[in-house]
Design goal:
The chain is mostly beta strands. It has one helix and five strands; from the N terminus they run H-E-E-E-E-E. It binds zinc ion (ZN).
């Protein structure tokens, strides 16, 4: 669906957008400069874009002993502010997987390509 991104004066309140089916919008991916992610949810509100992402192929290698004997251990959502698009603020919600290493018991978050590690 080709929607103009200019605000059309629609005063709709919920601002929810049907998630894209089949082919994710490549243009957005390019704009976000985050290759390797899948857009799982895209929401446009009056002042913001809320974009939910997850990695395509999570890396479950333990950073401690570099084995892959790791099991899923829930998820963490990271909020990252990206550069504004079309005058709207962009919030990226990255649905990061957590793993627990069965060898050393350490829990860790999957590495997120393109995201600086200054978040905890
Ligand atoms: Zn380990």
């Amino acid at each position: 669906m080709a929607r103009s991104n200019e605000s059309q004066g629609k005063g709709a309140g919920d601002g929810s957008v049907v998630p894209p089916k089949g082919s994710p919008p490549h243009a957005s991916e390019h704009l976000l400069r985050l290759p390797g992610y899948t857009i799982t949810r895209l929401q446009e509100t009056e002042h913001d874009y809320h974009i939910a992402l997850e990695t395509r192929s999570p890396n479950r290698r333990c950073p401690n002993d570099h084995t892959e004997h790791c099991v899923g251990y829930g998820r963490s959502e990271l909020l990252i502010h990206d550069l504004p698009m079309h005058g709207k603020r962009v919030g990226l919600y990255i649905d990061a997987r957590r793993f627990k290493c069965r060898d050393c018991g350490k829990t860790f978050m999957e590495p997120l390509p393109g995201v600086d590690g200054e978040h905890r």
